[in-house]
Every structure is written in structure tokens, then in C-alpha cells.
Amino acid sequence: MSTDDNDSDSGHCKTPDSDGEVAEEIAIVAFERKMETAEEIVDGIGDRYETIEILEYHGDVFEEHWGEYDCFIGLMASGIAMRKTAHLLDDKWDDPAICVVDEELTWAIPITGGHHGANQVAQDLATMGAIPAMTTASEAAGKQGVESRAKAMDAHVVNGDSTVQTNLAVLDDELGPVARLDGPQAVLVGDDVTVLERNKDDGVVIGTGSVSGANKETFLEAWEIALEQTDYAFADVEFVATATRKEDEEGLLEAADELGLGVVAFDKETLLAHEGPTPSKSKELIGWPGVSESSAIAGGREQELVLEKISYEDEVTVAIGR
């Protein structure tokens, strides 16, 4: 995989306006007798989207509103949604995603567009108690597909057809870290190379490290204090960057999730190639450079620091890169 920002760096992990991977405009299609549940969904997750509207079900409701929304939440049996939309499906990158949910909010089932919004909506419905029944291969195997990596990096997939091959490589554990190429330069890629492009023209990256077990609140407070020392706010953050040895820190993941940010974990070699100016004991002890500065530099578009490392409560370190 390659991004438009480049230098042989590596990190785990259609169009910028539609994004291809993120659902922002939602329609809940519900029978009249299920309107109360539809309102519950709006109240429960509506603030996560740009718009969320309720449409009363009738036989042609999907056809009438096809293309107006990124994702339909069908408050109905999956068979109804499938029969009423099958003839409308044309291209997975252009078609709206569809996720069905039962009236008791027991199951949330993506039936089309799993990687293009339906899985995301199912995960949001899970916060209301529904069990997300994801059948896309990478998610079913507990792995991060390339579309999910793009979302984590606040990027979008440029050449959608390539994801068939790259996601097969994900399943076989054969897809390496995201390669970064800094231009201007021309790059010739094959059909099995997925190209990612950033969604924002500018923005910053939160680079962060921590002691094991730091909780969500500590991360959030540390990040907020760091941003207050810059001209940037959480709205300007593209993603949170860290080291692969910290990518499973529960507090970090919970904090990023609360802010709606993806987490990108860089490997040791990448961080060593982008070591920051502040000395770190971890390099002497375990051979890793300071995580916060090196990950902020590696992830930033310009590969420079806005804020050098600060420490919060001796638990979390933060640097800001761009």
C-alpha cells in the first residue's frame, strides 16, 4: 500500500468527499410501528454523523432515496432489505451501504458495503447493545482490512479494485506496513497495490507513548494539554500515532475511540528513522526511540514537530507533528 506522502516509511494501519470508507449521512428506514425504536437510534448514535434521518418504509423507499445517503439502517428483516435493494446494486464503491437491525436492537447486520460504512454503523449500534454480525473476511478474522487502515489514517482509497488482492494478503498475514512515498514523484503500481490519499490538506498528528495500563482519562487529559500549547485543536487531528509495542494499550484505544480518531502504529525501524530531538531512556534500555516524538514525525505530512515531547502525570507522553 502506498500513500501520497512519501519516504519509504511504514506503519500499520474514491473521493475525499464521499470517502468510500466512512458513512456520514444516514437514513433509518422503518415501518410505522417501529418508529419509536428508530427515534431511539437517532438519540443513541445520531451525534456521530453529519445527518441522520428517518424514512417511513414503503415498497419503493430505497429506490426513491438511492444515492442520497451513505448508509441505510434497515429496521426490518434482512430479507426485506435484500429483496428491495438487490436490483439497485451496481458498484460497491458507489452504492450506499446497508445495515439491518431488529426492533429489539439485538443484532446489527451489515448486508452490503461492510467496508464502506455498514460495519462502522454496526459498531455504532453495538454501543446501544446490538451485536454486530460482521461477515467481511478481514473483520471476521479479527484483522484490519485496507479500508479500515485508510479510515484510521484519515485517508481514502484511490484505486478500489486493488483492495481485493490487498485484503487477501491481510488474511494471509502477507501485507506489510503502509509504505510512505514523499513527492513530487511518479509512481507506477500494479493492480495489487492499494493507494491511499490523505483526506485533509493540512492537520496534525498526536504522537503518544505511555506506561503500561494508563487509563483513558489520562490520555485524554494529556492530549488536551498538549494541543493547548499549540494553535491546533482536536478537530485538526488526523489520527493518533504510536509504536507497535503500544498499539494494544486499552486506555489509548478507548481515548482515541471517544474522540473518533484512528490509531496508527509504527514499527521500530520507522521510528528509529524519525527519531525526535528529546533523549529517551527507552533507546538505551530496549533499543526503541522515544515513541511520542518519533511517531508524530513519522505520521506528519511535513514530518516536523509542532510540539516536542511533554510528559503528563509520569504516565503519558505526547508530541504533536504535522
UniProtKB/TrEMBL annotation:
Protein keywords: Hydrolase
InterPro entries, per the entry: CbiG_hydrolase, CbiG_N, CobE/GbiG_C, CobE/GbiG_C_sf, GbiG_N_sf
Region (Disordered): 1-20
Molecular function as annotated in GO: hydrolase activity
GO biological process: one example: cobalamin biosynthetic process
Sequence ranges assigned to domain CobE/GbiG C-terminal in this UniProt record: 204-320
Keyword match Hydrolase: yes
Pfam families: CbiG_C, CbiG_N
Cobalamin synthesis G N-terminal domain ranges (all copies): 61-139
NCBIfam families associated with the record: PRK05788.1-3 (NF004465)
PANTHER family reported in the protein's UniProt record: COBALT-PRECORRIN-5A HYDROLASE (PTHR37477:SF1)
Protein name as it appears in the record: Cobalt-precorrin 5A hydrolase
